[in-house]
Specification:
The chain has helices spanning 23-28, 41-50, 61-71, 86-97, 147-151, 168-181, 193-198, 200-209, 218-224, 231-239, 278-291, 296-310, 322-328, and strands at 5-10, 14-20, 36-38, 55-59, 76-79, 101-102, 115-122, 128-135, 153-159, 185-189, 213-217, 244-248, 254-258, 261-265. The chain is of the alpha/beta class. Helix 4 links the parallel strand 5 and strand 6 (101-102). 53% of the residues are buried.
Length: 333
Amino acid sequence: MTKEFQLVGIGNAMVDVLAHSSEAFLAEHGIEKGIMQLIDKDQAVHLYGEVGPSTEMSGGSAANSIAGFAHLGGRAAYVGKVRDDQLGAIFAHDLRAQGAVYETPLAPADTEAETGRSIVLVTPDGERSMNTYLGVTEHLTPGDIDAAQVAGAEWIFLEGYRFDGPESHDAFAKAISACKGAGGRVAITLSDPFCIDRHRDAFAEMLKNDVDLLFANRAEIEAMYKDAGDFDAALEAAAAEVAIVVATESEHGCHVLRNGKRWHVPAIPTKVVDATGAGDLFAGAFLWGLAEGFDLEACGRMGNIAASEVISHLGARVEADLKALFRTHGIIA
């Protein structure tokens, strides 16, 4: 029987504030380049006033993946918390406009925490440094998980960043139980090396017991399997625990491991304008290919194409027709 959804994502619900930045600006404001750091509401307000001209759009790592998946025509839904405020309305409208179902209950308008936002500073080399005020998205609870919706999914996709939250682990546990109980499978992205350090034990337990597909970049998989020794050994350690392991390596493409086999899929050469969303769109396109029955190497090629498209311009939403690009590259008819 065909399930209602091919993919349900669960993670942060944010509005991205994208601005170009100099290296000097990062140094002046104590911002470490190339990572995501958490800030409070006062810091978010101050930094927003300092960055100058910006572009605002809905974001959040797994939400970006779901938007890409839905752009390709996939049947998708998303679970992430926003407040009943202006930014919350922007987030919900934008995600639904991509073709995804979004029904997570809104936090009331009088909630102290606001809809989360991430101030993404893009340096001339295309690297992005994210300054994230989580707001109400930090307070995702088991009550926000619709067990029937999750049970109606072939896959669920969990965002590692959402491990930063007092009840998020319980929310994930509820979603995993509902999904697996109905024969579905679980994918996760590790999100960030510092996130791994904060929640190493929780990640390790989930990878060993629940996860069917792992997404990570080189830094993240080396951080998760830090005792392995090097990148190749970390990949093998991950593959010993998870059925499918997918590791991205920027301009070097991606590595896919399954059943003792390993594929290296070269990247698509691209001028980097903004690296925001590269891993997110990679995952969305890879998951779409998997849900549509393509082999793993083809899924990797789709992921690389989607990543190359999104880094060629500002923002984490694709601007080209990904299916048309897949046809150009001879992956689909």
